[in-house]
Amino acid sequence: MPRYLTMIRIDENNAPEGGPSPELQERMGALLEEITRAGVMLDTAGLRPTAEGTRVTWDKGELSTTDGPFTETKEVIGGYSICQAKNMAEAVEWTKRFLKTHEDYWTITAEVREIEG
Amino acid sequence: MAVSHPPEHPRQAAQATRQAIETVFRMESPRIIAGVTRIVRDVGIAEELAQDALVAALEQWPAQGVPDNPGAWLMATARNRAVDLVRRRERYARKLAEVGRDLETAPAQAGPLEPADPDAIDDDLLRLVFIACHPVLSTEARVALTLRLLGGLSTAEIARAMLAPEPTVAQRIVRAKRTLAARAVAFEVPYGPDRDARLGSVLEVIYLIFNEGYAATAGDDLVRPALCEDALRLARVLTALMPEESEAHGLAALLELQASRTATRTGPAGEPVLLKDQSRAHWNQMLVRRGFAALARAQATAPSPAGALGPYALQAAIAACHAHAHSYEETDWQQIATLYGLLAARAPSPVVELNRAVAVAMAQGTEAGLVLVDALTAEPVLKDYHLLPSVRGDLLERLGRTDEAHAEFERAASLARNERERELLLARAADCWAGSGRGARPAESASCEGA
Asked: In this protein, which residues make up the domain named YCII-related (chain A) (predicted)?
């Protein structure tokens, strides 16, 4: 059964103020527990804002670092999950359920990718 | 980026909907079957009703769209049909009674029909686990039924996994469901001493499924990872259903740790790679950590006297020793030998003894291990077990007794049923002839590899 990395992409510049509502957190918590109890969820976490992040680039033999926030980037990764699912369709179905826990005023994109090996 | 929603063509849309339905059904079917079994008290009928709900979805969703909560829709549809069925049965029974005939069978009791809450679903699932692994069924039937009802695998997938013809597996499942109905096996979680025996069967079935994938006893492939993952998922589900059960965590820990090595157990051509030669850098560290965490839960929930671990948790502890070691040489063999001693006391078996011998050979010297192995050669249970001559050949080789080692490897090869393992053993036999050859190989046994 393959593993899938789901990257949650958000727009930090247009994220709802105050972050996730308590109701959202509750729905999300319940769903994450359900995915775990189904034996599917291996690991998941949110990420701290890019303001606290650093990019390290290797470009033609030159190392450079850029401290966040990465305001020029429309979408940044705000969280991830690693799931063990039967196939891509199942991984996508869980991802849809995850997105559906959000209120209508959210705009988020989840990218589901199979982990190699 | 291709946007798949909304699809451009009706046919594409129909296909997407169909795929969505099948995916959701597969994900939800264990819970649906469990919930419906509570009402109709028969897993065979419950499975048919779940299938009916699938058919209803295939008819309605393409036109009406996939509902917001597809899992709940399927569950509600299946439950409604179950309730109809029970009512019809009751009406029929009443009619029979009215015309004055004796009832041969009491009408089935309908379960409470309140909306399904998560705890109730968990209870139902656990009951379904205990039914699928009921001792009234043969081991093969338990395995097939567990994969079918709880793993959501199709008959064709189970047949492929078990290397059995599809009609055989289908027959096995049909007969198993019939046996359960005929023997009126109760839909319940047993308690008291019965519970321990039944839980043993549940754990064993999951372990067997994993092992069939991990150390394929026959066939051309050494590892069938999909089967391992199914078993691992079942073990994870079981720990969620029985959070206070130390051995459920122990089994989960064992399987997580064993699965962490999957990628390194075979070479590019599918040949087996011995534990010593596995690249530890490629052991899956996330699974290792999950294994450690599950082992810690097994220890925390172990019954008194404190730390009295069961056989699965002990095997997990051994696997954890390997995972903790940075290299084969740095492994704490003394600790492993001690754990095998505990395991031999808790669940004595010649196979455990053989594994203990390997650990003793590493911890206390090859001679000490060989004494233990030699004592096992008269063991009838191990008469055709290829790992006995394999281990013995290995120890002999290390002691420089290459002629004897050669004979043992050849014998091991003749007993191995897995093609890949046979090749490896023949190669090792040839090495012995070549004298120093590739140099001494380390001991490798079922559980130094397997645990």
From this structure: 4-97
Domains of chain B and CATH, by start:
16-86+119-189 (no CATH), 211-331 (no CATH), 357-435 (1.25.40)
Is A82 in CB contact (< 8 Å) with chain B? yes
The residue in chain A having the minimum alpha-carbon distance to the alpha carbon of residue B240 is A37
Among candidate residues A92, A99, A94, the one with its CA nearest the CA of residue A38: A94
Question: Which has the minimum average pLDDT: A38-47, B3-12, B42-51, B355-364?
Answer: B3-12
A117 touches chain B (CB under 8 A): yes
CATH superfamily, domain at A3-115:
Dimeric alpha+beta barrel (3.30.70.1060)
**Out of B23, B229, B230, closest to residue A93 by CB:** B23
Q: What does pTM read for this prediction?
A: 0.86
DSSP code string of A16-80 = PTTSS-HHHHHHHHHHHHHHHHTT-EEEEEE---GGG-EEEEEETTEEEEEES--TT-S-EEEEE
> For the complex shown, is ipTM > 0.85?
yes
